[in-house]
Structures are given as structure tokens and as C-alpha cells.
What we know:
By secondary structure, the chain is of the alpha/beta class. The protein has 16 helices and twelve strands. It has two domains: 31-45 and 65-191 and 329-377, D-Maltodextrin-Binding Protein, domain 2 (3-Layer(aba) Sandwich), CATH 3.40.190; 192-328 and 386-436, D-Maltodextrin-Binding Protein, domain 2, CATH 3.40.190. The strands form two sheets. Strands 1, 2, 3, 6, 7, 8, 9, 10, 11 and 12 form a ten-stranded mixed beta sheet that branches. It has a two-stranded antiparallel ribbon with strand order 4-5. Helix 7 (230-238) packs across helix 8 and helix 8 (254-269) crosses helix 15.
Amino acid sequence: MFSRLLLVLIVLVTFTITGCENLPVDLPLPWQQPTQIGPEETNEPAQPEGTPTAQPTEPTETATPSQNPKKLILWLPPELDPYGDTDSGRILVERLNAFAYQNKVEIVVRIKSSTGAGSLTDALTATRSAAPEILPDLIVLSAADLQLAADRNLIYPNEAMKEMLVGVDWFPFVKQMSTFEDQVLAVPLLIDPYSMVYNADSQLVPSNEWNQIHKNFGIFGFAADDPTGKFLLLQYLSAGGKAADAQGHALLEETPLVAALQALKDGLNTRHINSLSVQYQNDVQVWQSFLDRNLDTAFVPVSLVLGNESEKSGEPEAALIEPVFSIGSASAWALGNPDAGRQALALQLLADLMQTEFLGKWTEALHRLPARPSALGSWTEPTLKPALEKIAQVTEILPLESVLNKLGPILRNATLLILRDSGDVVETARQAIESVK
């Protein structure tokens, strides 16, 4: 006992003499902790098999909001993983760490699959019921998941989000994606539109009208065997067709569908559509065929063009048309926690992540177009940026997943009937419309 008191006395005397210069300091300050990934460190509930059928109760604001919250939880899809070995990941980590330090909070990042059991929406449903204390403060959802989360009352409106979307510094698709039943439930983040790619060395620039592919130079290709039938859907929508009625049910209209199928027929009859198109099932196959110079023009998402890092000799230099209309996939930020105090802090972080300079730098590294024109304007990409700015202005988000799941196989079959079986345009349209009913 005496020896312990003596030891304490010696330490105190030493500290008094030397000050604290040699005393190790390792305080667990919350803003110095790194962001984390992985549900295994929490009591997160096991994810259900398949899509839950029970509907959550109507969300309500917490009666006693937390004061000065010290933690923010973010749920992100794999493509936004900040800890992947990517430039975009490093850019995001740097931003999150800076916000955490400045605001003296801990930021926890969890990566959730976009599809299947344990997907973002399934995890959100399960967590809300079993462990609401670890609900995400901010969550990035695809357009399809955003609709699902809104239908299940899993995300929350906030007046600050509505105010954030005021002004002209947003592309038109933002309004389509952010509002559900007159409530602003999301702040759109990025979009990946489709366009037509062609060889920049070509002296003949393709038409910006999708129904004029038969007049373009050379051979055109697209994924005709795509289960979602996106190219025919694009042709149909650009001809004025509607994909859903007022109740959200899948719909095909005869006049625009005939026009869309006729555009395919014209391309086939003039030998402008590559015969291999009927074998392509996805965009990557089409893009690779363009790089291999089997195609002069191709229908692909711009992310494939922007993300091409191949330096093989002989590959064409890609250029993009400026279409009068396009479609694309998109994602947005939403609030996943009802606590008003946590929402306030989460919205501060959201405003920081949507700031022009950062958003431009991050989305350029992600090879996706930002929701804000000013952010796209800050890109350093010198050749494609003028076309990308015009593409983003005319892009609509793909129809809801329920509609796409219904129409996709029908449009695919109609495409193959025209290209592979030389089907009659009017009869093919009639069969497709009957299939929707």
C-alpha cells in the first residue's frame, strides 16, 4: 500500500516539474473518429428475406428532439462507397472528415445493397421496427427505391429540403424526382442519362432525333435483348407516348408505339442497325462493340463513356450527340430519421455535400452528372461537357420500377419481333398493347 502511494507521489512530482509536454494524450474526441462501415459493429437487426409486406405506421416527428447530436449515420449504395480504392471515395472521405471535425460529430457510413434481401429499403423497414436508434440520418436512394420508401412512409419531409430546391440551379429532372404527393421528400444527387455515342473523328455528326437513325452514317447498335426494352421505350416516349396512366398503371398508346416501331423498321430496312444488336443484352456489350469499331454509333449511358479509362490504340475517341430527349437513372438524398435534432444536423451535412465545387469534383470522379448545372459547369472535362450540359437538360427519369417491370419484357419482345423476325409494325404494336392489359 505504501509503495503505491509513493509511486503516485513520484508521478505527481514529475508532472509538476516537467509540465505536460511528455504526457501522452489520447482523448476519444468524437470528431476525430474515422467514419465506419459495416452493420456488424451495431445491433442492427437481421434483414428479412424478400420484400416485407407489413406497412409501417405513419411517421411522426419525435416529441423531444435530441439536443446537439454527436453522431450522424449515412447509408450509401455500393457505388458511393467512400472506402473503395477510388478517387470518388477519397474525395467523399475528405469531405466527411472535414465536416465531422468542424462540427465535433462522428459520422458513421454503412454500405447497403441496392437490390435483393437486405437492400436499402428492406434494411430501412427492418431497422425502423427493431432498432430505430440506428436509423440513417441521411440515405441515398435510387428513383425506384425512393418511390418505395415514400409509399412505406420510411422517409421524412422537411421544410429545409424544400427551401434548398428553390432557384434555377437545378436540372429539370429534379422536380420529377423530389416531390411525392406535394411533399418534398428528397434532394436529387445525380443522374446517368442515355445518349448516342459516335466517333469524334467522323465528319458526319449523327442526328439528335432518335427516329432518324436510318439516316445516320454507318452502323448503329443497342441492346435489343435488354429485358427492360429501354431503347424502344426511349423511342416511344420521345414520340409522345405515356408509360403510365393517372393511377400509375403501365400503359402503351398505339400512335406513339407505332411511330417507335417504325423507327426500328426504317433502321432495319436501310441496314443501319447492326445485326448483332439482337444478341446484346446490356449496355456494356454495346459499349465494347463500339470500342472494337463494330459500331459507328451506339445507344449507351454516359457513365460508360465518362468512365472509359482504356488506352488501347485504335479505339475511337467518343463524342456524344445532344438529343432533344433522353431517359436515365438517378439517385437522391433523403432523411431516414424522424428526430428533429438529428434532421437539423443531417441537413447541414447535406447542404455541405451539395455545395457546387465539391459536388462537381465528386460527381466527375463518379462519372455521373450532378443535379446542379453549376456543379456540372465546374467539371474539368473539356470535350464532352458542352454535350453533357444539354443532355442533362432534356433527361427524364426512367418510369417507376413497377411500370418498367411490366413494360420492359413487352417492349423487348416487340423489338425482337421487328429486328429478328421482320414483324409487321402495326400488328406488333397491337400485340404489345394487348399484352399490357
